[in-house]
Amino acid sequence: MLRWLLACAMEQSTARTMAARSWLLLLCLAAVATAGVLQARAQPDSIGFISIDCGLSGTASYVDDTNTLSYAPDAAFVDAGSNHNISAEYITPKLGKRYLNVRSFPDGARNCYTLRSLVAGLKYLVRATFKYGNYDGLGRPPIFDVYIGVNFWSMANITDADTPLLLEAIVVVPDDFVQVCLVNTGTGTPFISGLDLRPLKSTLYPQANATQGLVLLGRINFGPTDATDIVRYPDDPHDRFWLPLVDATSWNSISTTQRVQNIDNDLFEAPSKVMQTAITPRNASKNIEFSWDPEPQPKNPTPGYVANMHFTELQLLPSNATRQFYINLDGKPWYPKPFTPPYLTTDATYNSNPYRGLAHYNISINATANSTLPPIINAIEVFSVISTTNVATDSQDVSAITAIKAKYHVQKNWMGDPCVPKTLAWEGLTCSYAVSSPPRITGVNLSFSGLNGDISSSFANLKAVQYMDLSHNNLTGSIPDSLSQLSSLTVLDFTANQLNGSIPSGLLKKIQEGSLNLRYGNNSNLCSNGNSCQTTKGKSKLAIYIAVPVVLVVAIVSVVVLLCCILRRQKRGTTINSVKPQNETPRSHVPTGDAYPQSSLQLENRRFTYKELEVITNNFQRVLGRGGFGKVYDGFLEDGTQVAVKLRSDSSNQGVKEFLAEAQTLTRIHHKNLVSMIGYCKDGEYMALVYEYMSEGTLQEHISGNGHNGGFLSWAQRLRIALESAQGLEYLHRGCNPPLIHRDVKGANILLNSKLEAKIADFGLTKAFSRENGTQVSTNTLVGTQGYVDPEYHATGKPTTKSDVYSFGVVLLELVTGRPAIFRDPEPTSIILWARQRLARGNIEGVVDPRMRGDHDVNTLWKAADIALKCTAQSSAQRPTMTDVVAQLQECLELEQARAGGANGSFYTGSSSDPYSGYNGSTADGQSTDVSRSSTAFEMDHNFGRAPTMPTGPAAR
Ligand SMILES: *[C@@H]1O[C@H](CO)[C@@H](O)[C@H](O)[C@H]1NC(C)=O
Ligand SMILES: *[C@@H]1O[C@H](CO)[C@@H](O)[C@H](O)[C@H]1NC(C)=O
Ligand SMILES: *[C@@H]1O[C@H](CO)[C@@H](O)[C@H](O)[C@H]1NC(C)=O
Ligand SMILES: *[C@@H]1O[C@H](CO)[C@@H](O)[C@H](O)[C@H]1NC(C)=O
Fold first, then answer.
1. Start-to-end CA span in the chain (Å)
2. Is the dihedral of CA 147, 153, 155, 156 positive or negative?
């Protein structure tokens, strides 16, 4: 064990000998403060030094009269931690002022000091001191890690309360600043007493370079007779601490008062004061011997050591005298040739390649046979080497995110480098780590972070960012157009802030190109539609006064129209709440000559009381699923028909409005590929919808491999599900009058029954389509689910039937590829872009779901992929209608069936190659059915964070 132990123990009796294998030095590092008071500076002084008294309160610096250096309080260098005084029992009259107080860091895994105004690429000596002094009254000195920049420096093992620990490193600093970070390793609260930085010429210490740093083990001055006689600044212009080692029993001291010159291009510049003293063995026939033990650490188990030995001849020798010696390490030559020190001029031997793996490092210096004089040595420095190959995050990114942190006073673990080391990367950031270039910030999630004020221009300086979520803050002002300069940005979320103005044109353009997904719902003053935006305040107020009644009127008219349409058999003026049970199914919207037979279930829009529901569900015993609406329960009607009961909970974020919307829609539409509503309940505050039971759950579960039977869908099954879903949507678009837009088409809203027949579910967001302008009334709240939302709808706020076509295209791509709409690759990737790129290169096998094991016709696969790409065209005009899609998918299915099952391969009975052939007609004990609704704009935001970590069934939401 070899360390620097510095203490103010004047009563020390015997300094240890080198032979004792310990350089335990008991010394007084006295530094008494004097009057000179300067202002704190966070910059190097005129000689480039930074000297910090950590934990010193106030802003005043002081000058230490023993070394004339000025010490600054640390507030300008660190923005965490708290100041403490050491305990009185550890204060002695000669204790240096900087040891009287410490800064400790009880919070956060990593806390850092930042030393600025350096020169990137130059070499610096950095020194940290730690005197515990029982400042916290716990009597337990801590152990923690210290990093220099992004590289591990040393463990700080504070072994006792009184003895200061001193860590020194010589490193090449890659930036114009360097951080010293204390990392809590779970073994006590990190603290620090002092921090120094000293610039060094690049030529000094050749063993320290851009990829390797030196950590001081010992720096010994041989020859002083006073063990307290430390040499440092101003005697050493670099302010290294040279500690005396006194052992009068083994060594003779020799010294001179004449100045020792440094040779030209001296690699170490040992100061004259150090070189003026030396030792020779007391017994002239003996060697000089000393040793050190390696100090392995958990993060550096076999440290490598380099040593610099400093020699000069202090005596003018007569011509018949010679001093010549060998230097040996562990009995083997360390320096290969006989060595003769020059007179009053520094010389040094050092090793470039570190030595490793010895149990002890024994140095022996012996005279050669020709030598008339014993060996001599003036000083030695021993360092372990550390790797400094970790590269900090791109400096532009660091500046930008640091400015963001400062502007919004981000309250997170934002200390040290944003991305490095990975284990300490800043919460909310995603980074990319390339081998040959610095890490970049690619994702920023500052949602729910209490950000106040306008959107910082620094966001636009995060040049590699792909994903930025600033939702649910109090951001004000407008969205800066500079964000459109971020070429990699694919997702930008401003949902639920107080932004105003319009969406900048640069961003709109990206949305239209399909490269950007912008979310901005819940910003009441933000104009989602560029041209309807007010420019002046007065105008805007007026516009609101006008707009509100218009919107109200439109809304009232729509509701009335819808109600009339639904309840035309009812007394005018009644509401759905008072609808009496009906025996007759409304048929007004079922196409005549119904090509699609009614569901086998005899449907009736029956009204249930809450009591009846209790009976049906056996007191709400079995939960099938859970959604934003509330829970979905399993139940049986009197005739044994299994049903799913969706009960609206009080805490539900699905309002009465959506509940009614779904009830209304389902009351009037019936199609074999739309989930059927059997009845509803509006009993006091209880609201519920009763659906046909879909035992095989959602399509999403099957695609993600969580289907109830564990297996995967065959290509033919997928095609049939696609066709049936398309038929359901086509019915909404064409069979209903006015047409209905589902607005939330996705795998989770396509349910499968025991025969794997597909039905569209969740009509809570469905909107009637206005024939006049072809669009629905624009609202500020976008609905839909991340990854499925039509970019045109997104940009305009106006859904069309083509918005459903777009979402259906995404579902179709999911069926082809087996991948979710957005997945990690490793960054969140849209299935559309991903598939488009591969298909453009003709790579169908690169996108097809490998779980189909190649059991598919490549032509139908191409055709289906092609339909999907057409559906997801950026411009709605280029997308097919659902009617086109149905026709195309019909063709695909026929081709696939012909291939798989021969001419008459009936899909419904399964083909021989169908792994699910035994599945049809099974009475699978369905566990869940999706009749939950899911996607208000608000929920969509939450979904995004999880979307890449598919699968998440709707029931889990
Ligand atoms: C810290 O130092 C003490 C005393 O030398 C030693 O016993 C202990 O093992 C060290 N702790 C670690 C974690 O190395
Ligand atoms: C730094 O020094 C080490 C040891 O001599 C060497 O292996 C490494 O290549 C050097 N790195 C640079 C950047 O010169
Ligand atoms: C060197 O010469 C001096 C006289 O010139 C003599 O006293 C001394 O002993 C000699 N030393 C050696 C080592 O021969
Ligand atoms: C001194 O060291 C050298 C080189 O290791 C060795 O060859 C020689 O025998 C040693 N001489 C004495 C006197 O120890």
1. 57
2. negative
Which atom of ligand 2 lies nearest, measured to the CA of 210? Answer: 13
Residue identifier of the C-alpha nearest atom 4 of ligand 1: 159
CB of 318 sitting under 6 A from ligand 3:
yes
CA dihedral 881, 885, 888, 889 (to 10 degrees): -170
CA–CA separation, 454 vs 653, rounded Å?
29
Is residue 646 marked as binding? yes
Which pair of structure tokens corresponds to residue 113? 């000091």
Comparing 226-235, 731-740, 923-932, the range with the smallest average pLDDT is 923-932
Q: Is the CB of 210 under 6 A from ligand 2?
A: yes
Give the nearest ligand 3 atom to 318 CA: 1
Band (216; pLDDT cuts 50, 70, 90): very high
SS3 category, 329: strand
Structure tokens at 442: 């690619």
Tell me how far the alpha carbon of residue 49 lies from the centroid of ligand 2, in angstroms: 27
- The CA 354 to ligand 2 mean position distance, Å, reads 11
The model carries a pTM of: 0.58
Nearest by Cα to 499 from 460, 533, 538: 533
Q: Check pocket membership of 319 for ligand 3, CB cut-off 6 A.
A: no
Whether residue 857 lies in the annotated active site? no
CA distances to 117, 277, 284, 657, 779 from 252, rounded to whole Å, are 46, 10, 9, 97, 93
Q: What is the mean pLDDT of residues 242-248?
A: 93
Nearest protein Cα to ligand 1, atom 6? 159
> What is the phi/psi pair of residue 4, to 5°?
-90, 115
Q: What are 687-723's pLDDT values in tens digits? A: 888 888 888 888 888 888 766 555 678 888 899 999 9
Residue nearest to atom 2 of ligand 3 (CA): 320
CA of 158 to the centre of ligand 1 (A): 8
Beta bridge partners of 721: none
Percentage, residues of the chain above pLDDT 70: 78
Q: Is the CB of 370 under 6 A from ligand 3?
A: no
Ligand 3 atom nearest 319 alpha carbon: 1
Q: Are 113 and 74 in contact (CB under 8 A)?
A: yes
From CA 817, how far away is CA 815, in angstroms rounded?
Answer: 6
Rounded Cα gap, residues 805 and 726, in angstroms = 9
For residues 48 and 64, give the distance between their C-alpha atoms in angstroms, rounded to a whole number.
17
Segment 464-489 mean pLDDT: 94
- Structure tokens, 941: 């935001």
Q: Which domains, and CATH codes, for the chain?
A: 1-29+212-388+930-949 (no CATH), 31-200 (2.60.120.430), 421-533 (3.80.10.10), 598-692 (3.30.200.20), 705-915 (1.10.510.10)
Q: Are strands 606-608 and 677-683 parallel, antiparallel or unpaired?
A: parallel
Closest atom of ligand 2 to 352 CA is 5
Instruction: Indicate which residue of 744, 804, 849, 857 is catalytic.
Output: 744
Burial (Cβ within 10 Å: 0-12, 13-18, ≥19) of residue 718: buried
